[in-house]
Amino acid sequence: MDFLNLMVFLLSVAGCCFGQNALPPGPVEGVIGKNVTFTTVVSPGDYLTVSWTFNGGSGLVAVVTHAPGGRNYGPGYEGKVLLNSTNGVLKLGPLTAKDSGDYTLNMINNMGKSTTGETTLKVLEPVSAVTIKSSLTEAVEINSTVVLTCTSKGSFLKYAWLNGSAPVTPDGTHVTLSADSRNLTVSAVLRTDLVGPIYCAVSNSLESEKSAPFNLTVHFGPENIAMTINPTGEFVRKGSNLTLTCSAKSSPAAQFKWIHNGVERKETDPTLVLANVDKSQAGNITCMAFNPKTMRYLSAQVVKFTVIEAISGTKITGPNPTLVAGNSTASLKCSATAGTMVTQAWMKDGKPLLSSNRVNVSGDSSQVTISPVQKEDSGEYKCQMTNAVSKEEATHKMVVYYGPEEVKVTGENGVEITESVNLKCVAKSLPAATFVWKFNGTLTQVTSPDYVMEGAVYKNTGIYTCEATNAITGLTMSAAHLLSVKEEGALDEGLSDGAIAGIIIAVLVIVAAIIAGVVYMRRKQTIESPY
Ligand SMILES: *[C@@H]1O[C@H](CO)[C@@H](O)[C@H](O)[C@H]1NC(C)=O
Ligand SMILES: *[C@@H]1O[C@H](CO)[C@@H](O)[C@H](O)[C@H]1NC(C)=O
Ligand SMILES: *[C@@H]1O[C@H](CO)[C@@H](O)[C@H](O)[C@H]1NC(C)=O
Ligand SMILES: *[C@@H]1O[C@H](CO)[C@@H](O)[C@H](O)[C@H]1NC(C)=O
Ligand SMILES: *[C@@H]1O[C@H](CO)[C@@H](O)[C@H](O)[C@H]1NC(C)=O
Question: What's the alpha-carbon Rg for the chain, to the nearest Å?
């Protein structure tokens, strides 16, 4: 150390007596391994000497001295410092922990005026290895309290927590922070609490570092359990397949159980198929979801179902094949070989069949009795069987035999000799009537409904009686007709009104007498029953 430098050194040591305005207020902070710059507040200019000294606690050490003779570096400072001699600014680095301490600057200008400053350098350890540690590796929603601890290397550290990009805000109950903010406690953790993801941000006054994103699996559920049943509806057709599906929101996925009529089934799939169902399986079914992590159970609503056998083999039995109007009783019975919970209804010719004074529909609609039958009871009878899963019907065509009735003879009342005569007999009857004709009470050979004579003669005058017979009802009804055969031209002028009236009255009297006779004979005669 030459004289000048020694002088400067001594001046700087004694710098107390000069202006203390060379450095801004400290302390100055730096980080291990990095550079630090000591700024100054002196006006730039030509300085005779500029010197920095260091006191790390074990005595004064020269750092660098700039003098007209050149620069001198203290031990170990060559290559580690950069000095700007026009303003005294010193760059120092890379820093080590040992660089912490007090630094003094002393500058003397051309006029011999000295300026001094002193400041302190804090060398900080850098922030590194920021990690989050969790008290749990997996949590159960509400049950668990999670404590996250942030660790980091470095000195003078401050801790902060981020949820995504927003700072975590403690609320004092659910989310709390330790006094130094190193521990984040989440009580009764929710699935949404820690999915931010969470970061720990550690900083000192110079730098900050963020941890890797942290996520914690928070198990929850089961919840929102739902069971569906296909086909839907309470009634299930016997022999069909019933598919039940159970679902629940859960983490991890729920395990399922099926409770069928109070008994746990062995199946554990979320879908249960009851194949070929029969009545013994009817009843109540529900599913249960279980979460092995949360240890919680949840039951679905119980579904009740009824197994119904489809209707088959519907038929109508009963009515006697030969029904006679006014005399027979018809009894129709409807039955099926299979089917449960069946309701029945009767229709006749497409309209509902109702009870009346002759028609009796039994209370359960299984049977219809018509007594006595009449011709209007003929028609199509339909029995409809219905249950919740099927519908079937049977029909029966019923025929009621009747007649003959309304027997009538039409044709000429008077003809002239040689003219032709055509008498026609009609009767309402089922089956169709057979006919015989009588002339003046004597049976003729004619058995057709028409009585035809080509070229009338006088002796054809007389009473023609048509007798209609129904082979099944065994009934016979007659009608009479008076024919007069006259000489040629007799009918030209026609008969006087009086004569016509006389003839009509005579005919009516005769017809009435004949009908009376027939009815009398009928009462006496027994007609054989056709069955
Ligand atoms: C520190 O200063 C030295 C010398 O000026 C330079 O070579 C180095 O790159 C600087 N280092 C940092 C971290 O700035
Ligand atoms: C189904 O549940 C109802 C109501 O709880 C009960 O009355 C009925 O006996 C149950 N049926 C079966 C077959 O267990
Ligand atoms: C969580 O709490 C519920 C209700 O207190 C309890 O039933 C369940 O068993 C608990 N789960 C665990 C995994 O401790
Ligand atoms: C009517 O029924 C009675 C008794 O069943 C029978 O004796 C009678 O012959 C029947 N009459 C007719 C017209 O079928
Ligand atoms: C038939 O009866 C009518 C009137 O009763 C009578 O005028 C006529 O001579 C009779 N004819 C025969 C062929 O008996």
Answer: 64
Residue given tokens 């069955």 in the structure block: 531
State which amino acid sits at residue 506.
Answer: A
Are 520 and 417 part of one and the same domain? yes
Report DSSP letters for 346-361, one per residue: EEETTEE----SSEEE
pLDDT tens, residue by residue, 333-351: 999 999 999 999 999 999 9
Ligand 2 binding pocket (C-beta < 6 A) is: 261-262, 283-284, 304
8-state DSSP, 24: -
pLDDT at residue 488, rounded to an integer = 87
Choose the residue to mutate in 35, 73, 80, 92 for probing ligand 1, maximizing ligand atoms within 8 Å of C-beta. 35
Q: How far is CA 273 from CA 90, 232, 277, in A?
A: 85, 14, 10
Question: Regarding beta strands 90-92 and 367-370, do their DSSP bridges make them parallel or antiparallel, or are they unpaired?
Answer: unpaired
Ligand lying closest to the C-alpha of residue 189: 3
If one counts the domains in the chain, the total is 5
How does pLDDT run across 352-371, given as a tens digit for each residue? Answer: 999 999 999 999 999 999 99
Q: Is residue 530 part of a domain?
A: no
Strands 343-348 and 198-203: unpaired
Which structural domain range is residue 231 located in? 223-308
Q: Supply the CATH number for residue 187's domain.
A: 2.60.40.10
Residue 241 forms part of a structural domain: yes
Cα 34 to ligand 1 centre (Å): 7
Structure tokens at 256: 């399922």
